[in-house]
Amino acid sequence: MLKIDQLSKTFYPNTVNEVRALQKVSLTIEEGCFTAIIGTNGSGKSTLLNAIAGTFIPDTGSITLNGQNISKWYEYRRASLIGRVFQNPFAGSAAEMSIAENIVMAMKRGQNRSLRLAVTQRVRNEIADRVSVLKMGLEDRIDNPIGTLSGGQRQALTLLMATWLKPKLLLLDEHTAALDPKSAAKVAELTKYIIEKENLTALMVTHSMQQAIDLTQRIVMMHRGRIVEDYRDEMKKRVRVHDLIDTFDRLQKRELFDESVAELLLKQYV
Amino acid sequence: MNLVIGAFTMGLILSLLSLGMLISFRMIRFTDITVDGSITLGASLTAVLIMSGMSPWLACLIAFLGGAAAGMITGILHTRFKIQQILAGILVMTALYSINLRIMGRSNIPLLDTETISGSTETLLVNLSGGVTKISLFGWPVPAGDLAVFISSLAICVLLSIALSAFLKTHFGTALRATGNNSQMVRAQGINNHTMVVFSLALSNGLVALSGGLLAQYQGFADVQMGIGMMVWGLASIIIGEALVGKSGIGITIIGAILGTILFRLLIAIALRWGLNPNDLKLVTAVFVFLALVAPTLFKTLTKSIFGGQRHA
Known about the structure:
The complex is a heterodimer of chains A (270) and B (313). Chain A has 270 residues and is α/β, with parallel strands linked by helices. Chain A has a domain of 163 residues: P-loop containing nucleotide triphosphate hydrolases (Rossmann fold, 3-Layer(aba) Sandwich). Helices cover 38% and strands 23% of the residues of chain A. Chain A has 10 helices and 10 strands. In chain A, helix 3 packs parallel to helix 5 and helix 5 packs parallel to helix 6. Chain B has one domain: ABC transporter involved in vitamin B12 uptake, BtuC, CATH 1.10.3470. In chain B, the strands form 2 sheets. In chain B, strands 1-4 form a two-stranded antiparallel ribbon. A two-stranded antiparallel ribbon of chain B has the order 2-3. In chain B, strand 2 and strand 3 form a beta hairpin. The relative contact order of chain B is 0.19. At the A-B interface, helix 2 and helix 3 of A face helix 7 and helix 8 of B.
């Protein structure tokens, strides 16, 4: 279970460039729940994901995962609990190293790395076995540098690597956004398959509302560093793309007003 | 023949420098200038310790550890104090200049008639050949001492290469290689990339210092100036090696670095024999490395300007 409590982060504080990226965000995600985070550009959804991954340390608030307060952990330490897939398909693997070498690193995610031979025959068989699930023919190419693969293939492998050891939390940061439509559909399908099969707790940032509706069990909408909507259970089952777009429009219309005017009107009309 | 043996021996000794730099330059992609200082550190430590009567093997081990400490400091300056790679290296290299002078007490220590690591091999060779000091090799008489140094250097080089290659194929070694390739990915797999950088620089400079220690024994002196330009020499050797055998696989890369160093030494020996002024050596090397670095881009630009307009993305 992931529990985020009153998380705040301001970038460039007390300057003209001040960005209040997260403002007292609280969110609890139950074990085995696949949640999507949607929102406009600059709404703080990627920042939230990075805060959980440990790319930066938040100003205030806490993050609890698997009963442990990980707020002060370094990024590499959090990797023992968290699997990640990035937006950039090249970010999740080492291009000049082979498929097998990349995966062997994922097999030891968050563990001590010994001075034993990494890619043994037993490991190779295991890798070929699990890679064949992707149905991309990669099991015959596990000694090829991963840089020779296409973006879609690399992203599929990154997803496989992130879930090779069952993570307590899987973070997907717009992981299909940079792929061509066909590869994106394939990776999305694979995501759903793996998450359901392993019953993973996952958090996915996406720009595709259709994808959020199709894949996940819960949709959280963010705007200006705050969570503004939370569709879950029955409500999530009923929600359609146009509902989400309507909500976006409403948020944007409110922004046309000065904030104080909005507050005033809200008091009168709501 | 003596020229060839000499170039080979020198090449084998300096290939430890190339192997060290292979780790920093090629594996973790760290432009490490500490090398210029740590090779002298290795030489000066070995010279002083051997002069004080210590076993040359133990002296070499201490040289290795000294170099490792220097590399570690460069790594910490970069990772913990966020100093740029090159500046961190320059700081440590500059500091090492004074430290080396302190260690030696003067700028030059001659090592004449002292014990070296090849001493026992030489005795063995002389005994085997029945007491003669010149051994016939393919018809050429070669001093037993020279041959002994060659054999010892070869043995050390082969053993260390095998060890290094095996190490780089372990779980830890795989993580080390990935650190230079994609540090974001490495962190996401739970590896502390900063620790990896510090460790790699320690290992790299340890090998470089060991090379310096062997070099001092071979040339018979340690000099505070001897490290100047060594980084560029090592880089030239690595580039030649990659041109020779490519870089597919760890074993190949390591063999390439060794062959590259030997070939580079041979080329230098031949150039000097043909009358190249030794003072010009570093200039020539620098120009060579420059050309090797720009050649791929230059080549691409040339092809583009010749075939320009005919192909596009």
